[in-house]
Amino acid sequence: MKTTNCKDLGGVCDHELTASSWDEIVKLMYKHVMENHPELANEMEAQHEKDPHAWGNEMKPNWDKAKEVSVTVN
User: Fold this and answer.
1) Could you give the strand order of the β-sheet that contains 2-5, starting from the edge strand earlier in sequence?
2) pTM score, whole prediction
3) pLDDT at 73
4) Residue 73 included in any domain
5) Which residues are CB-neighbours of 48 under 8 A, at least 6 positions away?
């Protein structure tokens, strides 16, 4: 599991997101942006229409260097 935050993935806040894979963090980030930053969601959608791979190419290195965290399940 890794933890990163909204800003590290191109967002505007320090909300932390934890996931076990790149695909999972993309889904969490999408949900977070849609629910909390609708203005940014519009910008990201426009960028995605221009170049569907731009965001991932830019942000994946941030995910790759995110710190590993251990999660305890009760």
Assistant:
1) 16-19, 2-5, 67-68
2) 0.84
3) 66
4) no
5) 54, 55
Alpha carbon distance 24, 54 (integer Å): 18
74 located within any domain:
no
Q: What is the pLDDT of residues 20-66, one digit of tens each?
A: 999 999 999 999 999 999 989 888 888 889 999 999 999 999 999 99
CA distance 12 to 22: 19
Cα distances (angstroms) measured from residue 73 to each of 58, 70: 32, 10
Range of the domain at 32: 2-68
Is the pLDDT at 68 greater than 80, yes or no? Answer: yes
> What is the number of structural domains in the chain?
1
Q: Please answer whether residues 21 and 46 qualify as being in contact, where contact means their C-beta atoms are separated by less than 8 angstroms.
A: no
Task: List the beta bridge partners of residue 67.
Answer: 3
Structure-block tokens of residue 56: 């991932």
Residue 43: both structure tokens together: 């910008």
